[in-house]
Each structure stands twice: as C-alpha cells, then as structure tokens.
Amino acid sequence: MSAIPLSIETRQLCRRFGDFEAVRGLNLQVPQGSFFGFLGPNGAGKSTTIKMLTGLLQPSSGEVYLLGHNIWQAPIEVKRQIGVVPEKLHLFERLTGGEYLEFVGAMYGLSEDLIQARSEELLELMELSQRNDRLIADYSHGMRKKLALAAALIHNPRLLFLDEPFEGVDAVSGRILRELLQDLIARQVTIFLTSHILDIVEKLCDHLAIIHQGQLITAGPLQEMLDRLTGETPAGTASLEEAFIQIVGGQKNTRQLSWMQ
C-alpha cells in the first residue's frame, strides 16, 4: 500500500531568537487534501511555525517541504502554489477590493482576462461586489478578512494557510468562509488552519496537531485523537476543548477577585 502524499513535511524544524527557542525539533506531516488544525496556547510557537512554513522566516535549523519541494531551495515554485491569510492583515488600504485583487493576480502572473473573471467571481462569492467602489480603508474587519481570503485564492493554490481567519468575523461572514473552505477540501486543496475557536476547528478539521512550548505534543486524525485522549470520558463523547486542556495541562481557575469574594 502506497504512502499518502504529503502537502507539508517538516524535519527537525527549529527557530531560535537569541537564547529563546520558539520552535524545537518540529516533525510535522500534513496529508494532501486534509483540513489540518494546528493548535496551541498563546506563545506556543504557532505563528513562528507558520512564518517558517510560508517562507517569511528562515529556520535556525531543520527543513520544510511543501508539495514535495524544499521551500528554501525552490521558493518561487512553492509560493506559486500556496495561498496565505495571515492573522495580521496588511492590505493596501488606498485601493478598492477589485484593484487589490487585480494587483495580486498580476503578481502571480495571471492574464488580465483571467484576473477580471476570477475577481468578479470572488467578490460576488464574498458578498463584496456591491461595494467594489469603496476603498479598503473603509472596509469592516469582516470584509477585510473575506478580501484577504479572495486574494489568497485568486491564483488557485493547492495549499492554503489560514492564521485565525474567523477572529472578529460575524456569523454571516463566518458561514460564508466555512462553506467556501469545505468546498476547497472537496477539491483536494489542503488547508492548514490555526484558530483559538475550538468549536470551529472541531467542526471543520479532520486532522490535528497540538504544539506547546515550541514542541509538538500530539498529531493525527482528529477523531482518533479525541478517542485516545478522553481519559475517563466515554470514547467519542469528549470535546476538542476538553482534550486540548488535558493535553496542554490546563487547570481550573479557583482564584477570585478580592472584591467579589
């Protein structure tokens, strides 16, 4: 039986900032076509890892392979096939949404006709087409998130990185994003997601990895992990939140504010 092809593979990936080791010996495998959740508490090393995976930050040591290519040996080939929605959106605010997509499409070398067709379709899908005369500076947070996702998809990537895509997004916009992501998975696009909204991760993801203090704690198919980490809870009934807290060693807060006692 042949091995499942991988969209992402890291080998002993490390990143140090002076004496501080933010990511330590990370060996990660993300199957092709999976919806992969990458979780960890604040300061665990998630954002540092994503920056290394997407070529924004060079590792101190170790290797990163995306779609079979070493990202540092073939950066252009890799970046043509990936899309990225970072947690902190850096959009050109003096452009309209359509102008921004035109710019991004041109950066990927798409033809003018293809950029026009895809931009119109993306703006319509994201419910941004009726506001295409507005500058991005006037967009709400949710509109910016949807535009950033549209820009990440315009070149038809095979691998999509999403860093907190649902943070600050209203219910209507969140539903649009979730349905679009599920459609992408059906087309065998691999999605690598980080989010602190565990309910969404549990509903969307089929594979999961948890990082804590820079080290990979556990990884595998989501349901297998839930079944394995239920503790005293009957298998199949534990929530991702319960499993996550169990893994990272969270404890119930018994402290109270002095004036509320």
List the main descriptive attributes of the protein structure presented here.
single chain, 261 residues, alpha/beta, Rossmann fold, six-stranded mixed beta sheet, five-stranded antiparallel beta sheet, 9 helices, 34% helix
* Count of spatially separate domains: 2
| Helix/strand class | alpha/beta
Overall body shape: globular
The CATH class name of the largest domain reads: Alpha Beta
Largest sheet: 6 strands, mixed
Number of alpha- plus pi-helical segments? 9
The second-level CATH architecture of the largest domain is 3-Layer(aba) Sandwich
Write up what this structure looks like.
The chain is an alpha/beta fold and 261 residues long. The protein folds into two domains: 6-81 and 158-260, 3-Layer(aba) Sandwich (Rossmann fold), CATH 3.40.50; 91-156, no CATH class. It has helices spanning 46-53, 75-79, 97-107, 112-125, 141-153, 171-186, 198-204, 222-228, 240-248; strands at 6-17, 20-26, 29-31, 35-39, 61-66, 69-70, 82-85, 159-163, 190-194, 207-212, 215-221. It has a six-stranded mixed beta sheet, with helices on both faces. Strands 1, 2, 3, 5 and 6 form a five-stranded antiparallel beta sheet that branches. Helix 3 packs across helix 4 (112-125). It is globular and about 55 Å long. 37% of the residues are buried.
